[in-house]
Amino acid sequence: MGNRGMEDLIPLVNRLQDAFSSIGQACNLDLPQIAVVGGQSAGKSSVLENFVGRDFLPRGSGIVTRRPLVLQLISANAEWAEFLHCKGKKFTDFDEVRQEIEGETDRVTGANKGISPVPINLRVYSPHVLNLTLIDLPGITKVPVGDQPVDIEQQIRDMIMQFISRESCLILAVTPANTDLANSDALKLAKDVDPQGKARIQRL
User: For residues 158 and 152, what is the distance between their CA atoms, to the nearest angstrom?
Assistant: First the structure.
């Protein structure tokens, strides 16, 4: 297909993802995307923000990412962001982007650390990005807090597997530098779907 064909394909993929999300359905098509997987405080947010060149993701202790964030990066001459649930509203202040992610997360999950598989769709237009679709997934956790269910670890693993089990999904497994790779939960999950670690796993 070549690079030109891929450039034409990405906007179509973005529209398909938006269409599925707008009717509350999971996108079960095998669309190319990069899923960022890691434990709590593994550094996933910093990795994603480096793709964008902006600080825009919520920070805090415990589980911060409580819904999947589908992040569509689109190369453009100007820089702004927009959410699928805020049609027509452009965000040029990335502190407001962070606040909107926090508010929309709480709207669905509550303010006491609950989780939900319903994604937030965010597009970032910028001259500093490549055309990519990335997915920020909740960090792997083992101990429930707040309103989280007792089986929080299994629920998060199931949520992650929904995305990374697709053959078109590239798995970006983020592990802290002070962690033995043999004990990396992210790599263990990735190897469940790609046992040889050759086709779809990238370690970071």
Answer: 10
Residues 6+ apart with CB under 8 A from 96: none
Residue 43 · residue 172 · CB < 8 Å:
no
Question: What pLDDT, in 10s, does the model give residues 164-187?
Answer: 988 888 899 888 888 777 778 888
The per-residue pLDDT for range 135-172, each reduced to its tens digit, is: 999 888 877 777 777 888 888 999 999 889 888 888 99
Q: How far, in Å, are 38, 102, 135 from residue 163 at the CA level? A: 14, 22, 9
Supply the DSSP symbol for 74: E
In angstroms, the CA 147 to CA 113 distance is 6
Count CB atoms within 10 A of the CB of residue 6.
12
Closest CA to 73 of 34, 103, 28: 34
Backbone dihedral region of 191: left (phi > 0), alpha (psi from -120 to 50 degrees) or beta? alpha
Termini Cα distance of the chain: 29
